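Below is a filled-in request sheet from our internal design queue. Each sheet records the structural input a requester submitted and the sequence that came back. We keep these sheets so that new team members can see what a complete request looks like end to end.

REQUESTER: design group, bay 2
PRIORITY: normal
MODE: inverse folding
CHAIN LENGTH: 397
BACKBONE (tokenized):
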């Protein structure tokens, strides 16, 4: 009888153990399925966002994240101006970014900030084929020409036109005719990045970790610019560097009426197809580029955007500031900020760090930097509907 009880007990224990194993296996399967479902739900949400962005009207598409910082630095006055207009052309949903580095006075740079995007938008609305590279070139050239024509009228340079400018350089005097500004303008579309540059501000694209300049500085000693100036009857005099007639350290600018026709406002335009490995765009005045290389600028921004270590690196940069008497007037744009892009803290930190780095390296000029995160408003691509259906079928299993 005892043997029968023991046998039944062993069989009972074995049954319990087998039941526990089955229960654990079932529980593990449920947990795995739950994880799998969560993962696929995340994928589907991303795909739906991409499809939604693609199907949205152009004016409602996602804006890339951006940030800017502008510092007076060691100069007595701030002559830089920055313009950021997300969806500046509502019908097309394009985005506008620009840096203007004034000289002689700030009124040309400020006028460009207030008007350039409007002139570009007018040209865009009247363009027959804005997607064509040649059309983009003509469009930007006309915008720059119209901008300078407006300034000529405002300064009283045109016959019969009353002066409309009121600033320290005393318009209609010889001083006002030496006032001008560089201009580096970027128009961002879902497929392309258009850059128009006039002067020595610069646009730099980081693509796959490699710095890719989208503009070439207009310096008087650049071989083709030197030849153009000589053919126009001008001279380049080396006075604290190469200068047009010994005055201006750049060969192209908006304004500078007394240096015509040697200094021209015609921009050089590049049209770049956006790619999957495009990371970010930097626009900055020469106050940065005089002391920071393209490679260094890209590395700094990559650290801020990738590792989110901005606070620590900014603190280090602040401690290494070599001149405690430098004036650091910071102006930040944070007016347009929502979940679908806009002013972005990582981009602002990256721009701020670059300006602090320029100050630490003893830049003597105003420093203005714009950083645009191209990953948040990425290039358009055809969504794959079969991927969505396959995800659903896997979940049903």
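RETURNED SEQUENCE:
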């Amino acid at each position: 009888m005892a043997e029968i009880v023991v046998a039944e007990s062993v069989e009972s224990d074995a049954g319990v153990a087998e039941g526990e194993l089955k229960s654990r296996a079932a529980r593990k399967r449920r947990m795995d399925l739950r994880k799998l479902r969560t993962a696929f739900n995340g994928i589907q949400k991303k795909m739906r966002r991409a499809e939604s962005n693609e199907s949205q009207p152009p004016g409602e598409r996602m804006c890339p994240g951006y940030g800017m910082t502008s510092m007076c630095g060691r100069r007595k006055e701030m002559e830089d101006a920055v313009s950021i207009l997300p969806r500046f052309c509502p019908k097309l949903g394009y985005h506008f970014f620009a840096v203007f580095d004034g000289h002689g006075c700030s009124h040309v740079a400020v006028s460009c900030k207030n008007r350039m995007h409007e002139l570009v938008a007018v040209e865009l609305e009247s363009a027959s084929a804005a997607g064509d590279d040649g059309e983009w070139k003509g469009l930007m050239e006309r915008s720059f020409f119209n901008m300078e024509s407006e300034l000529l009228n405002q300064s009283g340079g045109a016959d019969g036109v009353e002066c409309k400018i009121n600033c320290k350089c005393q318009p209609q005097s010889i001083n006002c005719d030496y006032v001008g500004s560089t201009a580096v303008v970027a128009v961002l579309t879902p497929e392309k990045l258009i850059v128009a540059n006039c002067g020595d501000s610069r646009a730099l694209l980081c693509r796959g970790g490699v710095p890719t300049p989208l503009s070439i500085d207009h310096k008087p000693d650049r071989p083709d610019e030197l030849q153009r100036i000589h053919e126009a009857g001008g001279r380049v005099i080396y006075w604290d560097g190469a200068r047009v007639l010994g005055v201006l350290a750049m060969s192209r600018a908006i304004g500078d009426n007394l240096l015509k026709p040697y200094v021209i406002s015609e921009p050089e335009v590049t049209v770049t197809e956006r790619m999957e490995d495009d990371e970010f765009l930097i626009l900055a005045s020469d106050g940065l580029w005089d002391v920071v290389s393209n490679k260094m600028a890209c590395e700094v921004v990559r650290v801020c955007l990738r590792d989110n270590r901005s606070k620590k690196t900014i603190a280090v940069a602040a401690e290494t500031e070599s001149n405690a008497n430098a004036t650091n007037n910071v102006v930040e744009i944070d007016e347009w900020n929502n979940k679908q892009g806009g002013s972005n803290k990582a981009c602002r930190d990256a721009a701020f760090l670059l300006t602090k780095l320029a100050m630490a390296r003893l830049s003597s000029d105003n420093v203005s930097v714009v950083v645009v995160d191209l990953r948040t408003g990425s290039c358009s691509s055809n969504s794959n509907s079969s991927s969505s259906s396959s995800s659903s079928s896997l979940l049903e299993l």
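SHEET NOTES:
- The first helix runs from residue 2 to 55.
- The first strand starts at residue 65 and ends at 73.
FILED BY: M.R.
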